[in-house]
Amino acid sequence: MKKLISIIAIAAAMTCTASAQGLLGSLFGGGSSSNSDNSNVTTALGGLLEGLVGTVYSAPVSLNGTYVYNGSAVSMTSSEGGVLSNLAGSAVTAGVEQKVDEKLARFGIAPGTMTITFNNTDNTFVWTIGRLSLPGTYKVGDGEQTVTLTFGRTMQFFSMTGNLESSLSGAKILFTANKTAAFLKKVVKQLGENASQLGNLTSLADGYDNFKIGFKLTKQQ
Predict the structure, then answer these.
(1) What is the pLDDT of residue 209?
(2) I need a labelling partner for 134 at 20 to 30 A (CA). Which of 2, 86, 154, 202 fits?
(3) What span, in angstroms and rounded, lies between the C-alpha atoms of 150 and 155?
């Protein structure tokens, strides 16, 4: 049944490609049909489709092994209430995710450059970002739907709790935007960069509530 719903969601998204491209074009300030604009639309449309399929697909997340960062993940609700789960909402989410990706890329944080290795034997993890290694402990709760990460001395014992969501390739971990912003600022400082250049991530979703930013993770085989 889940597979059937996923196929229907993809088919619906494909039939709405033209209108989605128009929406995405406005998101990126593009009214033209330049190659750059088309590339932005294609990238965001891919995230849109993944979001639609990922919303249908669900299963408990058993954190163990190594996960590779595959881009930012965003979740939010409209100011009028309700999760942004339809085609237009997914387009907005994909657009915000691309903007977060662009900000992180300035500091060398891009898909494939960051990994998290979880060891469920002793509930420890190591978050690796380039040359930076950040160890800590983790605790899964609420029926494997949340995870609390507590970093070690290097991160001044920084802690954050996020929502766990399964995806077709692995998992997503979503934290409140303020907590993710605080974490990334600490990471950027550890990388020897100016954290102020990260900007205000929470402003990317002005007009929306319950804004969460996280990470798409692909599990290594």
Answers:
(1) 78
(2) 202
(3) 9
